[in-house]
Design brief:
156 residues; alpha+beta; Thiol Ester Dehydrase, Chain A; 6-stranded antiparallel beta sheet; 4 helices; 6 strands; 33% helix; globular
């Protein structure tokens, strides 16, 4: 999956990403960077709305897990389970979130769980930058559940 395909997928499957003006920056198996402009995400203080910063963190983490599941050949439903954002400074311009996996060994075990037909959890962290500095830090946990095949149920 390349940048354009991921962006089209996000805009179709998660319409909020389109309304925020989210663009996919760099994608690798180790990280995903998403960016958004100030204008559709502005608040009453002429800075980026905190909810938009949080949403971009969630979206970047979701995109990273989605991409890595595809690379592993695993078909699963993916949702955010929990997240936390620590805001450090206001963002006054375009902002970007770079998501990275937390605990690569745990990720390998989670992929094995999914292949066995069981639910798995993935931890992600992201830095949100604007104006040349980190303005927030995101941590999140995502849950993936294997999709049931048309031919029958998978083991639990």
């Amino acid at each position: 999956m390349d940048r354009e395909q991921l962006q089209a997928y996000l805009h179709h499957e998660i319409p909020l990403s389109r309304e925020m003006g989210v663009e996919v920056g760099a994608i690798t198996p180790a990280s995903v960077t998403l960016a958004a402009p100030l204008e559709p995400n502005i608040n009453h203080k002429s800075t980026v709305f905190g909810g938009s910063i949080s949403a971009l963190g969630i979206l970047s983490g979701w995109a990273l897990v989605h991409l890595r599941l595809r690379l592993a050949g695993v078909d699963a439903e993916l949702v955010i389970r929990a997240n936390q954002v620590a805001y450090g400074a206001p963002a006054r311009s375009r902002f970007a979130a770079t998501a990275m996996p937390s605990g690569t060994e745990a990720w390998d075990g989670a992929i094995r769980q999914l292949r066995r037909g069981r639910m798995a959890r993935f931890a992600v962290s992201a830095e949100i930058e604007a104006d040349g500095a980190v303005c927030a830090r995101f941590t999140g946990e995502y849950v993936a559940v294997p999709r049931r095949s048309a031919g029958g149920a998978q083991g639990a």
